[in-house]
Amino acid sequence: MTPQPAQPVVWPRGRRAAACFSFDVDAESAVLHEHPQAAHRMSVMSHQSYGPLVGVPRLLRILDRRGVRGTFFVPGFTARRYPDTVRAIVDGGHEIAHHGYLHEPPAGVDAGTEAGHLDRGLDALEAVAGVRPVGYRAPMWELSYHSPRLLAERGFLYDSSLMDADVPYELAVPGGPSSLVEIPVQWALDDWEQYCYLPGISGSGLIESPRKALEIWTLEFEAMRREGGCFVMTSHPFLSGRPSRAAALDELIARAVDSGDTWVAPLSEIARHIRSLGLRPRVLAPPDPAA
Ligand code: ZN
Q1: How far, in Å, is the centroid of ligand 1 from the Cα of 209?
Q2: For residue 176, what pLDDT is reported?
Q3: In angstroms, what is the span from residue 97 Cα to ligand 1's centroid?
Q4: Domain 16-276 classified CATH 3.20.20.80?
Q5: For the chain, domain boundaries
Q6: Pairs from 3-6 (Cβ < 8 Å, separation ≥ 24)
Q7: 103 CA → ligand 1 middle, Å
Q8: Is the pLDDT of residue 3 over 90?
Q9: Mind listing the pLDDT tens digit for each residue in 31-79?
Q10: What's the whole-number average pLDDT of the chain?
């Protein structure tokens, strides 16, 4: 089947575009999944724990001051290890969404294994925060072709891991009970590419200036606004929770709020709006390299 582009979206209350500030609270999980032996590297673990211990509280203060509610993707492991942080996110009125248990990327694992990760993550968020999330983001943004069905079967409303549109859309779920709203992301709007440097684990060794990061994100925000798209910023509290980076993100949030024509909302609210539009679901099948 020939892939078709997403349909244009009309935003609520006459707004021209939408924006969400999302946060992936990976903490230690993203490192431990790829490098289990790093559990014994005390400094590396402290680099990751900065996120829930210092970054999240700072970012919550910024969001509160700007009157913005964000979406926080929390791996189950993070929820179990930092219950007070996760409860503070909920108490701040923000959305908690699913991000695996130990940050397991679904691509490349069988459906049964992936289902186990989903269920373990759901149990942790329920136990710690009393939350049944409606949103999912694949760790490393590595969705599998069976993820949509597994998510729909568990009652998820949306996923936010794919990259083939400027606007959200309905994603067909082959063999599943319904469709899933997809809210696309992009690597240029991920702070990992600008800031992450962990010797022997991740990063190039080059840590970019928050000024440069802010310039990239602001240019994309303004262009996305003109295009009527959905700007989804992805920040990691262990990176963007650092003081000068949080200050840069604060500038970006202020720009979005002050624009007056952009709807700034949690992804769950954006997904509910998309669902209300009754869009035709897009069918996305794996390409056949032999075709
Ligand atoms: Zn992550």
Answers
A1: 22
A2: 73
A3: 12
A4: no
A5: 16-276
A6: 3/164, 3/282, 3/284, 4/282, 5/165, 6/164, 6/165, 6/166, 6/167, 6/168, 6/169, 6/282
A7: 6
A8: no
A9: 999 999 999 999 999 999 999 999 999 999 999 999 999 999 999 999 9
A10: 96
